[in-house]
Amino acid sequence: MLQQQTALEKLMEERKSVRKYEAGVTIPRDTITHLLQQATSAPSSSNLQPWRFLVIDDAAQKQALRIMGFNQDQIETASAIIAVIGDIEMYKNARQINDLNVELGYMPRDIADMMIDNSEKMYSAASDEARSNIAHFDAGLITMQITLLAKDMGYDTVIMGGFDKDAFAKTYELPTNEQPIVLIAIGKAAAPARNSSRLPLEQIMTFSS
Questions:
Q1: Which domains does the chain have, with CATH numbers?
Q2: Which of 51, 157, 177, 203 has its CA 20 to 30 A from that of 90?
Q3: pTM to 2 decimals?
């Protein structure tokens, strides 16, 4: 028997990568702030939340960013660009995060102290490359949440990994521990996005014996 499609399934199905945006559509900054606040419920490695965000909604800055983004039209025409940035020194926030867990009653003090100690020792000993891989993985989790929340709020998005990340970091004076990972264009679609096929599930899924 066919199951009725849930609201979440419908939302996931309707989310598409949109590259043509209506001109002159402004998204209030309070709306983007709320969107990102809600998106931070995403999981992350050891709950260290290595994501950072830079929201670019100024027309002149979007025009300049388009050059860094290999002339992708949506960078300039979307209402805003959300840059998702990864902090490879995420372990330095372990104490703040876990102290707050205690304050909110989410965990006892001894567990929080263990989490702080483990995170600071393990992540500080890891290479920059290893921590960068973790930050990229976690950025993917929150990026998906951002796009689904945006769709639920009536906005369209496209995720872009192709841009000059060195130029971006230099232009926006990012500290050495922060790495630009993806840009998310957000706005109102001016034309429907194309549908795209998916590999058959039996080709990509197996059950263990």
A1: 25-192 (3.40.109.10)
A2: 157
A3: 0.96
